[in-house]
Specification:
Blueprint lengths: L1 H16 L10 H11 L6 E3 L9 E10 L10 E6 L19 E6 L5 E7 L10 E8 L6 E10 L1 H8 L4 E4 L2 E2 L5 E9 L4
Parallel strand pairs: 1-5, 2-10, 7-8
Antiparallel strand pairs: 2-5, 3-4, 3-6, 6-7, 9-10
């Protein structure tokens, strides 16, 4: 009897701590939003990883707003960088991960939007479930804002993100092709 209670407690704890990796499909409204982001002008779109890059394709539909006013940040220069699907930054300068091989820059449109085409980053270092994309908003204070992914973030990571206003948790959706899509609003502090 004691063993069965013990195993039930262990099973319950493991089940509660496991990450739900399911990615629902896009709703009709999300499909329309994705089309709108895909049609943004050239300077508001960036392709960080091309179709030959190993890894699962990922499209980010991002909107940057002022944390204070909630107004869109237009004409804002934003830089992105992240690891390969293997979790390597492969920086041009070994002492500076901002020079990661997978990087790009875009300018927000009048509604604060940017469309990013890349791959899902791999886990970095020896930790699991720490996939993220670094985002730098030029002239904001602070400039750094990281995008994490709900389906690849453990409980400790989720707790850290919920207590930070520079880290954002994106909920992934899946297209029939396997491409992952997310819609995320990033609230930027002290933007110029």
């Amino acid at each position: 009897m004691k063993n069965s209670v013990f195993y039930m407690v262990v099973f319950t704890l493991l089940f509660q701590c496991s990450i739900d990796r399911s990615t629902p499909g896009l709703s009709n409204n999300e499909i329309k939003m994705l089309q709108d982001f895909g049609a943004l002008n050239t300077e508001s779109r960036v392709q960080i990883a091309d179709s030959l890059e190993p890894g699962q394709p990922l499209w980010l539909c991002l909107t940057f707003v002022s944390k204070k006013t909630q107004e869109p940040l237009s004409d804002q220069k934003v830089s992105f960088y992240h690891t390969s699907s293997e979790g390597d930054y492969q920086p041009a300068d070994p002492n500076d991960e901002t020079t990661a091989r997978l990087n790009g820059i875009a300018i927000t449109d009048q509604q604060g939007r940017i469309f990013v085409q890349t791959i899902l980053p791999g886990d970095y270092g020896s930790s699991e479930d720490n996939r993220h994309i670094h985002t730098t908003v030029e002239n904001a204070k602070p400039e750094a804002y990281d995008i994490h992914f709900k389906q690849y973030t453990g409980t400790m990571g989720s707790n850290f993100i919920s207590g930070s206003d520079q880290h954002f948790l994106a909920d992934l959706r899946a297209m029939p092709t396997g491409t992952l899509v997310t819609f995320l609003t990033i609230e930027v502090k002290n933007a110029v």
